[in-house]
């Protein structure tokens, strides 16, 4: 990269992150670090980023918080991710949600360097709305999730958003099911190299009776998938292969390498 109307009083960083700052002793960074609480937001962000890479999580969190206080979007996003992952802080999805909401509520200027943070905040919020956050005011709101994915997919053309939107449309989550609309978004995402979209697109084609092309897309996706996605993509492909005849399998395997360059 969730529930109740994320337009809700987006408990901003002022009440979330910044309240923490006001209650945190302003203990200085390492004397040789060259940054302090008074440093510029980008310098603090760079320090936090480097500290995080070195495994110095507490210093990274502190730097990101100070930079966030100064309005640095990248630091807010990084801090939200740390809360979402429990990385250097106690895992807290609701805290992450509040920060992502604040980023999203600010909008973004077209072409701004903050665009990637803004869009990823939209994706994170959509995920939370899709799943809900137990023990928080954020419940499941599929219509809101679908709308956020649509915004990121259509306005910004992000392949992951196009893929997630297509899955919701196929399942009829948050609105009517529409296979043709889902195929449109899957096709856009797979042209950007999204392996999951390539696999699901192939599975839809297979179910429509286009066995060879469907199998070819699923087979091609296996060669392009990330470790976290390979298992479900391979399972999908193997199920389809078990239903296909030998001739279709052979042709599909031969066709798969061409799928990467196909733009139709």
Topology (elements, then pairings):
Blueprint: H1 17-22, H2 41-53, H3 57-69, H4 73-85, H5 93-106, H6 115-131, H7 142-154, H8 159-171, H9 179-191, H10 195-207, H11 211-222, H12 227-243, H13 246-259
Helix pairs in contact: 2-3, 3-4, 4-5, 5-6, 6-7, 7-8, 8-9, 9-10, 10-11, 10-12, 11-12, 11-13
What can you tell me about this protein's structure?
This protein is mainly α and about 260 residues long. It has a domain at about 1-140: Serine Threonine Protein Phosphatase 5, Tetratricopeptide repeat (Alpha Horseshoe). About 65% of the residues lie in helices and about 0% in strands. The longest helix is centred in the middle third of the chain and has 17 residues, at about 115-130. The chain is elongated and about 70 Å long.
Briefly note the structural class of the backbone.
mainly alpha
> In angstroms, what separates the terminal alpha carbons?
28 Å
Task: Give the helix tally.
Answer: 13
Output mean pLDDT: 88
Task: Work out the helicity level.
Answer: 55-70%
Radius of gyration: 22 Å
Element pattern in H and E: HHHHHHHHHHHHH
Poorly predicted ranges (pLDDT <50, ≥5 residues)? 1-28
Q: Give the overall shape.
A: elongated
Per CATH, which architecture of the domain at 1-140? Alpha Horseshoe
Question: What are the defining features of this structure?
Answer:
single chain; 264 residues; mainly alpha; Serine Threonine Protein Phosphatase 5, Tetratricopeptide repeat; 13 helices; 65% helix; disordered N terminus
